[in-house]
């Protein structure tokens, strides 16, 4: 399947091929989109998005039009619950009854899925419950269908990043690791341990905060502010650096609030942090997180164990965009259920 990550500022595609000696990225591509096509995680202009997707996949040697995509935001809820263990035959019905008490949506308004995590000695079991508004799911599948793609899997952004990370890094089962996907408008957080998600949450901060600050402080258009933000010489411009420092401070406070909530719920100290998403290109982002949480932090490399042919379009995209492709890689890995 083609991994299709639809963000607020860009569309990312990844397709993987399995070989005897590992995995190869056949396709890796990124295309920027205007900020009015996807707003607050919702596809506002499906026709324009489909046009962009068609142009992006044109000329790619797709073996299948099957796609895996993902969603996030307030219309999606992931929660770990504890239930009494019982017969497998009536598990679906019991999960639905429990979900009716746990999720803030009407059951007829959502697509519901779950995964049994483990069975406890006291006769209970831990279950990961995920619910997504049908309207949001349809919103994404319709746009991809217009582009000629057949959506076979819809994942949750934090879990796609987790798939990508665990495949590439094979972490120690005892370590508590935070995965931060810092996008244009939303930062998704997932704290994991031993292959399990302990805590997920979305925070409404991202790279656009820097763009907006540049627009206001320097009286720039959106396009000019985006260009200034990506200028490699920005670190030498004192005005830009002062604005960036203010934005990083605001993001630090919001991310800190979320981790405080995790710890208040019984969470332990983090061992490591990995950061992905477009905003990882903001100078000082990774260093700020490392200083704030007192744990080693680094940009997540989605191609750490995935080969890209030297000089190929996929290889160039992996080199240029790196951490921005983490969700798309995690989605593409869903093609291989034995991982």
CATH topology of the largest domain: Nucleotidyltransferase, domain 5
Which CATH architecture of the largest domain?
2-Layer Sandwich
Got a strand count? 16
Count of helical regions: 10
Query: What's the gyration radius in Å?
Result: 20 Å
Task: Break the fold down into its secondary structure elements and pairings.
Blueprint: E1 2-6, E2 10-19, E3 22-32, E4 38-39, E5 42-43, H1 46-57, E6 66-71, E7 76-84, H2 91-102, E8 110-119, E9 124-133, H3 134-146, E10 150-156, H4 157-169, E11 177-182, E12 187-193, E13 196-203, H5 208-218, H6 222-229, H7 238-264, E14 272-276, H8 285-293, E15 297-299, E16 306-307, H9 313-321, H10 326-332
Parallel strand pairs: 1-6, 3-16, 6-10, 11-14, 14-15
Antiparallel strand pairs: 1-2, 2-3, 4-5, 7-9, 8-9, 11-12, 12-13
Helix pairs in contact: 1-3, 4-10, 5-6, 5-7
Task: Please explain how this structure is put together.
- It is a single chain.
- The chain is an alpha/beta fold.
- The chain folds into 2 domains: 2-75 and 133-335, 2-Layer Sandwich (Nucleotidyltransferase, domain 5), CATH 3.30.420.40; 76-132, Dna Ligase, domain 1 (2-Layer Sandwich).
- It has helices spanning 46-57, 91-102, 134-146, 157-169, 208-218, 222-229, 238-264, 285-293, 313-321, 326-332; strands at residues 2-6, 10-19, 22-32, 38-39, 42-43, 66-71, 76-84, 110-119, 124-133, 150-156, 177-182, 187-193, 196-203, 272-276, 297-299, 306-307.
- The strands form 4 sheets. It has a 6-stranded mixed beta sheet, sandwiched between helices. Strands 13-12-11-14-15 form a 5-stranded mixed beta sheet, with helices on both faces. Strands 7-9-8 form a 3-stranded antiparallel beta sheet.
- A hairpin with a 2-residue loop joins strand 2 (10-19) and strand 3.
- Helix 1 (46-57) crosses helix 3 (134-146), helix 4 (157-169) crosses helix 10 (326-332) and helix 5 runs antiparallel to helix 7.
- The longest helix is centred in the last third of the chain and has 27 residues, at 238-264.
- It is globular and about 65 Å long.
- The model has no long low-confidence stretch (mean pLDDT 89).
């Amino acid at each position: 399947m083609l991994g299709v990550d639809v963000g607020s500022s860009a569309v990312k595609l990844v397709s993987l091929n399995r070989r005897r000696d590992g995995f190869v990225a056949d396709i890796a591509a990124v295309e920027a989109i205007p900020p009015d096509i996807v707003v607050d995680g919702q596809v506002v202009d499906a026709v324009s998005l489909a046009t962009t997707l068609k142009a992006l996949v044109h000329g790619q040697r797709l073996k299948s039009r099957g796609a895996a995509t993902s969603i996030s935001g307030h219309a999606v809820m992931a929660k770990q619950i504890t239930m009494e263990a019982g017969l497998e035959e009536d598990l679906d019905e019991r999960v639905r009854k429990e979900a009716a008490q746990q999720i803030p949506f009407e059951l007829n308004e959502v697509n519901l899925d779950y995964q049994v995590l483990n069975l406890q000695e006291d006769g209970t079991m831990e279950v990961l419950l995920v619910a997504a508004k049908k309207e949001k799911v349809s919103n994404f599948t319709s746009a991809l269908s217009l582009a000629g793609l057949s959506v076979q899997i819809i994942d949750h952004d934090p879990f796609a990043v987790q798939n990508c990370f665990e495949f590439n890094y094979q972490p120690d089962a005892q370590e508590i690791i935070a995965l931060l996907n810092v996008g244009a408008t939303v930062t998704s957080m997932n704290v994991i341990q031993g292959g399990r998600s302990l805590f997920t949450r979305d925070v409404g901060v991202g790279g656009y905060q820097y763009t907006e600050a540049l627009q206001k402080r320097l009286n720039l258009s959106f396009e000019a502010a985006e260009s200034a933000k990506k200028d490699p010489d920005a670190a030498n411009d004192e005005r830009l650096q002062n604005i960036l420092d203010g934005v990083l401070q605001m993001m630090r406070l919001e991310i800190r609030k979320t981790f405080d909530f995790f710890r208040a719920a019984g969470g332990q100290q983090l061992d490591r942090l990995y950061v992905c998403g477009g905003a990882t290109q903001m100078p000082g982002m990774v260093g700020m997180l490392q200083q704030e949480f007192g744990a080693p932090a680094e940009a997540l490399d989605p191609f750490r164990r995935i080969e890209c042919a030297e000089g190929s379009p996929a290889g160039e995209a992996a080199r240029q965009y790196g951490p921005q492709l983490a969700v798309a890689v995690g989605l593409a890995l869903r093609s291989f259920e034995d991982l």
